[in-house]
Amino acid sequence: MEEVVIVGAGIAGLATAVALKKVGVRALILERSNELRATGTALGLFANAWVALDTLGVSDKLAALCSPLERGYITDVRTKSIQEVHYRPSSRNGALPRAVHRKVLLEVLAEELPPNSIRFSSRITSIETQVEHGLSICIVTLDNGTIIKSKVVIGCDGIHSIVARWLGLRPPVSSGRLGVRGLSVFPKGHGFDHSDALQQFVDVGRRAAFFTLNDKEVYWFFGATCPKDMEKEADPEMIQREVMEDLAKDFPPLFLDIVKHSDLSSLTWAPLMFRYPWDILLGNLARSNITVAGDAMHPMTPDLGQGGCSALEDAVVLGRHLGDSISKHGKLETQYIGLAIGRYAKERRLRAATLVTASYLSGWLQEDGSSRIMRFLRVVFYGLLLARVVNGITEHDCGKLPSVSSLPSCESESSI
Length: 416
Hints:
FAD-bd; MOase; FAD/NAD-bd_sf; monooxygenase activity; monooxygenase
């Protein structure tokens, strides 16, 4: 019997476990892989993410490992024109965007958890609920026959979430674009200034970007509307060759050189998926004592860099509402859990749907068409509106967790 079971040890799963620990609730994380996964290689963390990380108590530790990004440059591949974008410090916490290794973020979050909080190589086969003594209990079955009972189940298991499917949410759909990601290594140093090494290259149906992670590593991304799908099991050399010799062959030499220096083991490609915003607004984000967070709730295209940021927001909001279900004995009160999860889902619906919509529209503006109207919209968006949109979205404050001292005391228990 567990207090809370979290499915998936990604950003949302680990952050949610940390948030629950902050309010005195123990969580067991079930991860199907045999270690922390770093799929995606790196991500940008904007001001809204730093608000959440500060609440989780890890912002100082993480900020010491990555440099702030003060400005970026957007190059039009066809006209060669370059526009400069400035990222102003957040009015809430003075934070600037920072680029971070995904695995570093996962490790920092995992270090905040008690020993044995994560059970690796745990693949879920079914979820169900039943009533015991008048209270709803969640039952999770693993592929090895293990049965775990829990007061709460939180699905943080990505875009193909088993928990989201159990809730009845419709599957994510393809945006019509594919994304290629990689990490490039320059043993003698890449020579970019960390404060302004966020660069984008845009063209009809194609967009590329890169940012520095440290003195020797650069993360890069390439997205395109592409009628020709790569093979699902494409080998890294083929992915690299496809980008350099076909998809981005006319992009600036600066970008192609970064792709050339890729660590082949880091190269991945995948269709860019998202969930229709109306499914988020109207769908079952929670039922009984079961809910979802992160990509399991709101998969989105990467065009505004908000996937990981919004997952961190989810964790704090969920921890805040579940913290209200703590009894005087430091336990989750089962009869109040459904109400707490319902309040969480209600609070996150509009925010998540807005982020999904804004990200998709950002990508759409450079996805198709070379008409004068589309060219005009691209110039207006990238030249005049992008920084405002990003700054507006990233000013969001997900709130604070109640301090343990303000909650009823609870016995110290380690996770199974």
